[in-house]
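Appendix B, example 12.
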Amino acid sequence: MVKVPRYFDFAAMFAGTLPEPPRPTICPRSDEVGLFYRSQYNTVIGDPECGKTLLTDHATVVELLAGGRVLRLDLDHNGPQSTGYRLADMGADPALLGDPNRFVYIEPEDRTDLFEVVEHMKAWRPTLIVLDSIGELLPMFGHSSNSADDFTVCHSAVIKPLVRTGACVIGIDHLSKGSDSRAYGAGGTMAKKRAIGGTSIRVTVDVPFTPGKGGSAYLAINKDRHGGLRAQSPVGDKEPPAGKFVLWPHSEPGSSGTIRAMVKAPMKDERNPAEAAPSEDIAAVAGLEPPPSSANDTQKRLKWRADRARIAFKAWKLSPKEEDRL
């Protein structure tokens, strides 16, 4: 007897009997729309000191206060004291941080430690896992960040099993160094981005984060596989704004923590500041004769980087032309 494979049931899908597509619920913005998906691999990408770890700290505190269970995998060796005091300052009850049924933290020294954590999480059942950082995960296996095969091995050995626990897994990663590759996303192999099953949030500093004074960062959607966050964000940009992460001092008597944080939802017509073209670039495109036909045409004629030409050409196309103002 031939065994029939388990093909996807399109009849059930169109009949409406399948579950709804996943929605982002982790780390909600001020409009209650989350940045990240449960049971998916998500990432936060950006330059050093842009606020990546602080954003995941905020997500950790929110999840703990909502009754969740959080694992912090500190491959960057930020240190338990630094992490613990930061979370407490942001409003996490020290009793929660000290409860091994609600919060666990570890700096794995090698693959053996890491595999023990992965195995333990199958029974512990976390709701949120922060992996800081992906850049340190591959070297732990003796692998290269530029190899798709190497990343796939690490993804299958660590990230996939953690996702299967049902947790929202957030990996922190750094941007590429090259200007064109930075526009794509995190440094290393493109397999990193393909593996994301939830969102990839690009973090760009606005006001530098300073101890005791706070700071802010712009958040943009680098990837959203299911479209749930993108559907609730402004349109018009390649990487639409996902919100603004804001941190400020807080010292109300009787309240926990000394810092407050939130993700402000973007306005409907808000644009991604990183995709705004300088006026001189728009003028340079406008001065081309004949007018450019595409971003590629603009790049070739002005000899600019691809991302600069794309942004300037798009802004020129959307700007009012002289004949329209007459």
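The first strand starts at residue 26 and ends at 28. The mean pLDDT is 91.
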